[in-house]
Design goal:
It is a single chain. This protein is an alpha/beta fold and 288 residues long. It has one domain (13-153, 179-258): Vaccinia Virus protein VP39 (Rossmann fold, 3-Layer(aba) Sandwich). Helices cover 24% and strands 21% of the residues. The strands form 2 sheets. An 8-stranded mixed β-sheet has the order 1-10-9-2-3-7-6-8, with helices on both faces. A two-stranded antiparallel sheet has the order 4-5. The longest helix has 18 residues, at 55-72. The protein is globular. The two termini are 21 Å apart.
């Protein structure tokens, strides 16, 4: 039974959240506690929760947080740093490029650069509108990876070998196919079921895929820029222990209320693998 089959059922979850600077929070964490660290840091573009600084100072600040995250990550753990572009006077700087050397210097290897594609956002007039961000998935030499829980329906689910010793047998995995490194999830805009006051909110289903692929039940997962708690929620949904911190008290309180709703069985999230709404199809392509 998956989480969405359990909606309406109350249960006690393990989630630890606080309003605190991430470096101060991390000082209290022992080495190697977390199996997964997944976050989306501020992009240094002047959102309400950040102060815009030079790109050099931004990268330096990120380096301090990433170094501490490396310390608290378990030996087979993963770091997923979801980033977009820093924009300065019309020029874009992909933050993944700027931050990659930090991880490399700490001995991490980039396993995938996942492209998260979405359809909605600002409409640019002097360049093409941005419709993707990236998730940098880093590990050390040894790492956990569970493909089966995140498989998606195959394009040709009953395809079979037509010749050779396997003729007549399925040529695809009956559980589905690898989802690849381009993920299509709606971003959290005003009509999204998960929308809160946060201007750049993580969709829970995106984090769910990382949680299922890179951790096992009972593992600890941490978000150093928690916001309204989407990472903690995704962890708790799948029987992991979610940790998170943020410097905005209002966001932390919303995160706690969302976890309470999850415990009560009343939190609404967009189910993972639900098709993206298509207005050309009846009911947008969604089941009634």
């Amino acid at each position: 039974m998956n989480f969405h089959d359990r909606i309406g059922t109350a249960r006690k979850l393990q989630a630890k959240m606080t309003c605190q600077d991430n470096l101060a929070f991390l000082k209290r964490i022992p080495d190697g506690l977390f199996q997964l660290i997944v976050t989306s840091p501020p992009y240094n573009i002047g959102k309400r929760y950040e102060k815009r600084i030079s790109l050099e100072n931004y990268v330096e600040g990120q380096a301090g947080v990433i170094k501490e995250c490396a310390r608290v990550l378990g030996p087979s753990g993963s770091i997923c740093w979801q980033v977009g572009n820093h924009i300065n006077k019309g020029e874009i700087v992909p933050l993944g490029i700027a931050l990659y050397p930090i991880f490399q210097d700490l001995g991490f290897k980039l396993r995938n650069r996942i492209v998260w594609h979405f359809e909605h956002g600002l409409h640019c007039k002097k360049r093409l509108s941005g419709r993707y961000e990236t998730i940098l998935w880093f590990t050390r030499d040894s790492y956990d990876f569970n493909l089966d829980p995140i498989r998606v329906p195959a394009k040709y689910p009953n395809k079979k070998y037509f010749k050779g010793p396997k003729a007549g047998q399925l040529s695809c995995n009956p559980l589905g196919k690898n989802p690849g490194d381009v993920w299509i999830f709606p971003n959290v805009k005003n009509n999204h079921v998960e929308k809160t006051i946060h201007p750049c909110q993580f969709p829970v289903e995106l984090v769910e895929r990382l949680v299922l692929a890179l951790t096992n039940q009972g593992d600890a997962i941490f978000d150093p820029y928690m916001g309204v708690g989407s990472t903690v929620i995704a962890a708790a949904m799948h029987d992991r222990i979610g940790y998170g911190c943020d410097i905005e008290q209002e966001y932390v309180e919303i995160a706690k209320e969302r976890v309470k709703a999850l415990e009560a069985g009343t939190l609404r999230t967009r189910p993972m693998n639900k098709p993206v709404y298509d207005p050309s199809l009846p009911n947008g392509g969604h089941k009634q």
